[in-house]
Amino acid sequence: MKTLVIGAHPALKDSVINKRWLRELQKYPDQYTIHMLADVYPDGRIDAAREQHLVETHGSLIFQFPFYWFSCPPILKAWFDTVLTHGWAYGRNGGDKLAGRKIALAVSTGIRAEDYDRGGRYHYTLAELLAPFETMLRIYCRADYRPFFVFYGAEDMPGEDYSSPAWEVEASAQEYARFAAALS
Questions:
Q1: pLDDT exceeds 60 at position 27
Q2: Most exposed residue of 28, 70, 92, 146, measured as fewest CB within 10 angstroms of its CB?
Q3: Which residue range forms the structural domain that includes residue 94?
Q4: CATH for 7
């Protein structure tokens, strides 16, 4: 079965890394379905039945999004709240649609890796900050939650002369393709 990549980006046209990641996976249409929530739901109103059917007709899942304000974009949060219902995604009576399914996050950050460290600027690791997603998917939904994929430092740093060089973005796209293939 194909892997479903559920993308959530509030400004994909302005993205560097998320847009490049998607272009890389689009080279393999027999392996991936790219599902951009903002394109499908420009009004933000998620159709739970449609989304549940889409998930059920695919194998592994990747949730791809920029990590900002220490969370996911609002449309992805709305997706989780609307689609992962009791009796479908969790619960005793039939809540098993994600059970055992390989699920991973692919996140881009505008912050450098060293800032996501107990001794760094934010005092927490990215794994610690992503723990609510892991808890939701692994514990509640009983999914086979896999380690996340990350690209650090995709944006200009405020007050600093830093942005990710093109070679780094390209290398990340290749690594992302290998990461996604390993979920199949």
A1: yes
A2: 92
A3: 3-183
A4: 3.40.50.360
